[in-house]
User: Which sequence fits this backbone?
């Protein structure tokens, strides 16, 4: 078993419950951790035997381009798309963070973390 982590993927996207957020947009960070069996690729040194994390990044990027009201919805869509593409996933965790959220006070970010 092994763990692939893609950390601090940064996107500018148009997610949020407020109409202004969907027009102006905001910065988002996404962290992804995928548990998978790495015994075969560790021996063969072949991308064909491994979970291709470039494709995992492309999946996250594609899902971040689709507007959502809730971070929970984004995280759920990312997990759905990852499991649809990669059948070797044993467990995946995604964290979606909205930077400087419009909540009436100063804060760095708000985040949602989901695992499956």
Assistant:
């Amino acid at each position: 078993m092994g763990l692939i982590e893609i950390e601090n993927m940064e996107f500018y996207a148009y997610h949020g419950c407020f109409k202004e957020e969907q027009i102006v947009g905001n910065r988002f960070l996404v962290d992804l951790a995928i548990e998978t069996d790495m015994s075969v690729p560790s021996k063969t040194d072949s991308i064909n035997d491994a979970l291709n994390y470039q494709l995992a990044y492309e999946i996250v990027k594609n899902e971040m381009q689709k507007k959502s009201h809730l971070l929970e919805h984004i995280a759920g869509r990312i997990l759905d798309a990852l499991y649809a593409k990669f059948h070797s996933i044993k467990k995946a965790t995604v964290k979606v963070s909205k930077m400087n959220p419009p909540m009436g006070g100063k804060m760095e970010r708000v985040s949602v973390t989901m695992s499956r």
Notes: The radius of gyration is 16 Å. The domain at 2-115 is CATH 3.30.1130.10 (GTP Cyclohydrolase I, domain 2). The chain is about 35% helix and 35% strand.
